[in-house]
Write a structure and sequence with these properties.
- This protein is an all-alpha fold.
- The chain is 81% helix and 0% strand.
- It has helices at residues 5-47, 52-64, 71-83, 87-116, 120-134, 138-160, 162-170.
- Helix 1 (5-47) packs antiparallel against helix 2 (52-64) and helix 5 crosses helix 6.
- The longest helix has 43 residues, at 5-47.
- It is elongated, with a radius of gyration of 23 Å.
Length: 180
């Protein structure tokens, strides 16, 4: 009751956008998992890997984990195949790893950005900044913080305009001249 109604409206708007972004991020992860699953399934069919569908599903799930990725499975598997003198399969698995990683790096910022409502370049920047500041977990935290900042700024600008917000916040004596 002590909080002004305008603040509550803005808070609700920010929270709705934050939950929307969180579910968007989950959708993006599912999309990326399905792309990885499809790539692996096709490759395992071509390579005639026994139980390839199940292995592709397990690797796609491991790929969704923040610290792990397809490399956690494909690299050791490829090295074991090479050491077992199965050179063709070992090199194929290592090449598959490179292909999956390159495709993921190309599509991840665009998919995550589209799902959470941020430009892909800004998504990539926030993931990089999050990684630098918070480590591996920062690749998730960075875009979420970007969504929060965007939501807060969007709520301020949409509800009453930036100029009137500045005047109310910092006093009526504030003079803002139009750009030249």
């Amino acid at each position: 009751k002590q909080i002004p109604g305008q603040w509550m409206d803005k808070t609700r708007t920010v929270m709705n956008k934050l939950f929307s972004a969180l579910f968007g991020w989950l959708r993006a992860q599912l999309i990326l998992m399905s792309v990885t699953f499809t790539e692996l399934t096709i490759a395992f069919i071509v390579m005639r890997v026994e139980n390839g569908l199940l292995i592709a599903l397990l690797i796609a799930i491991v790929d969704a984990l923040p610290v792990f990725g397809v490399g956690a499975v494909l690299i050791p598997w490829g090295i074991i195949e090479l050491l077992s003198a199965n050179y063709q399969r070992g090199l194929s698995l290592l090449l598959l790893y490179v292909i999956v990683i390159v495709i993921r790096q190309l599509i991840e910022p665009k998919i995550i950005g589209k799902q959470i409502g941020i430009h892909p370049l800004l998504t990539l920047f926030s993931m990089y900044l999050g990684l630098q500041l918070f480590g591996i977990l920062g690749m998730i935290i960075g875009p979420v913080l970007m969504v929060i900042i965007k939501s807060i700024l969007g709520a301020v600008v949409k509800t009453d305009g930036f100029k009137s917000w500045l005047q109310r916040t910092f006093g009526t004596g504030l003079k803002i001249s139009p750009g030249k």
